[in-house]
Design goal:
The protein has 283 residues and is α+β, with helices and mostly antiparallel strands. Helix content is 32%, strand content 11%.
Length: 283
């Protein structure tokens, strides 16, 4: 027996599951039989330590000396079989092709239970749900690029290096930049930059923190040691929020990396997976 991370395409809400599986020859069978087509429906749930050992996967180079980490984070050249497996798995966790990360409903379960206590939440009916998947650093600051102008080196894509079309979504849509948030509050926040909506700065007194900053961090599943990076990744001028310096771009990558890995550690520990035996499957 081993543990697997399942993404079931058969469920309307696309919920992710961690379930026990049995391995018979090269075929993986789920106990719950979540999908009719069983081949490839499950992958081994990796330990946090094994993910950290894979070069350039959890964290990119620091300081930022060349460029931000693009798709090569998950598809590096000259990988051995183990590293290929680790990168493939972490891509499933990072999920940059969508901003919908249902696993956050469990990780933020204390906030969800309190904030949505009087709401009716229906799987697969987004228009009827009382929560949103909120980009902590808003799409308006990093998304929607149609291409960098040759005379403009201050766009976020310019820090990914050549042939980096679509790479901004690797950071913007990553689980590290998403939180579950009550719809009413998310609409109130609008495109507010993280340093303000997380309470690190206040609109009335930019040099002061909001009184509910600690609660906002806790509800958002953000650790206190990430505060400086969220502030550094935030825009300081609403009229130029899409202007990026190298320092700001580096901070955005680092805080997304830190929070993505912290969320995985929380799932792994709080769900009790750290207590499960992991057999050697490298043979």
């Amino acid at each position: 027996m081993t543990l697997a991370f399942i993404e079931s395409r058969a469920t309307a809400a696309a919920y992710e599951y961690a379930v026990l599986v049995t391995s018979t020859d090269s075929e993986i069978l789920t106990i719950a039989q979540l999908t009719r087509d069983r081949a490839g429906c499950g992958v081994r749930l990796e330990t946090p330590a094994s993910l950290e050992r894979c070069e350039g996967l959890v964290y990119g180079p620091k300081p930022l000396t060349t460029s931000l980490s693009g798709w090569e984070r998950f598809h590096a050249k000259d990988d051995n079989d183990e590293d290929k497996r680790l990168r493939s798995f972490y891509l499933r966790w990072w999920r940059p092709r969508t901003y919908i990360h249902p696993v956050l409903l469990w990780i933020q379960r204390a906030y969800v239970a309190r904030a949505l206590a009087e709401s009716t939440v229906l799987a697969g009916r987004e228009e009827d749900t009382a929560y949103d998947y909120d980009h902590i650093l808003p799409y308006a600051e990093w998304g929607g690029w149609t291409g960098s102008r040759k005379d403009d080196s201050t766009t976020l894509p310019s820090y990914f290096g050549p042939k980096a079309r679509g790479h901004t979504y690797i950071l913007g849509n990553a689980v590290g930049n998403i939180r579950v948030w009550a719809s009413r509050d998310n609409r109130s926040d609008g495109d507010t930059t993280p340093s303000i909506k997380l309470g690190c700065r206040s609109l009335s007194s930019p040099g002061e923190r909001s009184q509910n900053k600690e609660q906002l961090f806790s509800d958002s599943a953000i650790r206190d040691d990430q505060e400086a990076l969220w502030v550094a990744a935030s825009s300081t001028d609403p009229e130029h929020k899409r202007v990026w310096t190298c320092e700001r771009a580096a901070a955005f990558q680092q805080v997304v990396e830190k929070r993505a890995f912290d969320l995985y550690n929380r799932l792994y520990t709080e769900a009790g997976f750290s207590e499960w035996p992991f057999p050697d499957v490298t043979q």
